[in-house]
TrEMBL record:
Keyword ATP-binding: no
GO annotation terms (biological process): root development; shoot system development
Organism from which the protein derives: Sesamum indicum (Oriental sesame)
Membrane spanning residue stretches: 191-214
Keyword Transmembrane in annotation: yes
Gene encoding the protein: LOC105173152
Protein known as: protein BPS1, chloroplastic-like
Length: 353
């Protein structure tokens, strides 16, 4: 539930969207119901798996990578569902297509913003490498260079990413599209729209977490209430409450960044800054060596974690892009989207785990 102080982050003011898709008296065939239940049960399982075993795991880069893997997985799941529905694109409502194409562009923009922020953080590794190299010598000249590298790193990490700032308005716009259209005379359309609703909610939730982690503010977190009529709603609510609460708790303690690996590097940098500020006497040389070694270890973990996360963000970008291309291709030729989706799934098989 949203906290009283940030009601503007809560969306879905229109009530239960599933009433517009599956109103009372609406019946699905056993086959369609089985397809929908399978999709929702799979989504619930993915959400339960993503919940960290410990609060300390929230926003480790490895966990964020798992969150991005989840997005790749559920977007692949929706393609599998489309294939199983045998739902030709010519039967799609024009409004569904317009919303899908618009949303896909928004997701691509968000991915680009996240990738740019990861690249910016990775660039900071260069300052750390120079710092560690200069600390290999005990000369006063090297300490001057080390201080310069420390200042460079702190300024770089504290700088703003305008592309990241712009993506928050994109996420807000994406949230406003969660309202679902009334669907008449199309049982397959009802199943598809209900499944797409789940994909959109979970995608927005993960993007919200990434935005909060990269921006340095819990204000970017979204609280997304979902109807209890879906098989994944309980798992989603449990995960959202656990993760959002932990992130807010961290920020309430005055932490500058909630990225655990980045926080470890920042702690190491502060220790070294104090040691090299006025030089190091022989008594403290052992402390300097230990602090340098610790920073080297934490900086490598940060660099490796960012590299792996960047690959997952790129994988998600490709999943969204190929899905969009498949729809556009079938709109041009008037074919069955299921055929193209089946091909795309084969191509993406190694990217989605």
């Amino acid at each position: 539930m949203s906290r009283p102080q940030d009601p503007h982050r809560s969306f879905l003011p229109f009530g239960n969207p599933f009433r517009m898709i599956l109103p009372k008296g609406s019946h699905l065939s056993p086959k369609l119901l089985d397809l929908l239940n399978t999709f929702e049960e799979t989504l619930a399982g993915r959400l339960r798996k993503l919940k960290p075993a410990d609060s300390e795991d929230v926003l480790r880069l490895s966990w964020m990578r798992s969150a991005m893997e989840l997005l790749c997985g559920i977007h692949a799941d929706i393609k599998i569902l489309i294939t199983a529905l045998e739902f030709p694109v010519c039967d799609w409502d024009d409004k569904w297509i317009d919303v899908y194409l618009d949303n896909s562009v928004k997701l691509l923009d968000i991915c680009i913003a996240f990738s740019s922020e990861i690249s910016r953080l990775k660039q900071g590794h260069l300052f750390l490498q120079c710092l560690l190299h200069n600390l290999g010598s005990a000369s006063s000249k090297q300490f001057v260079r080390a201080r310069s590298s420390l200042d460079g790193w702190r300024q770089h990490i504290g700088s703003k990413n305008l592309r990241l700032d712009n993506c928050f308005s994109v996420m807000d716009a994406l949230a406003q599209t969660l309202d679902l259209p009334k669907i008449k005379n199309s049982a397959k359309g009802k199943v598809l729209m209900r499944a797409m609703y789940g994909v959109k909610v979970v995608t927005l939730f993960v993007c919200s977490i990434f935005g909060a982690a990269f921006s340095g503010s819990a204000k970017k977190l979204m609280n997304l209430p979902v109807p209890e009529t879906s098989l994944w709603s309980e798992a989603f609510a449990d995960l959202q409450t656990f993760v959002n609460t932990e992130i807010r708790n961290i920020y309430s303690n005055g932490v500058v960044t909630v990225l655990k690996e980045l926080e470890a590097v920042d702690t190491g940098v502060k220790k070294l800054y104090t040691l090299v500020q006025d030089g190091v006497d022989p008594v403290e040389s052992g402390v300097l060596q230990k602090s340098t070694s610790d920073l080297e270890t934490s900086s490598e973990k940060l660099s490796e974690g960012l590299d792996l996360l960047a690959k997952e963000v790129d994988s998600f970008f490709q999943v969204v892009l190929t899905g969009r291309d498949a729809l556009l291709c079938n709109l041009r030729v008037g074919g069955n989207i299921s055929d193209q989706v089946r091909t795309d799934l084969n191509v993406e098989g190694q990217a989605v785990r």
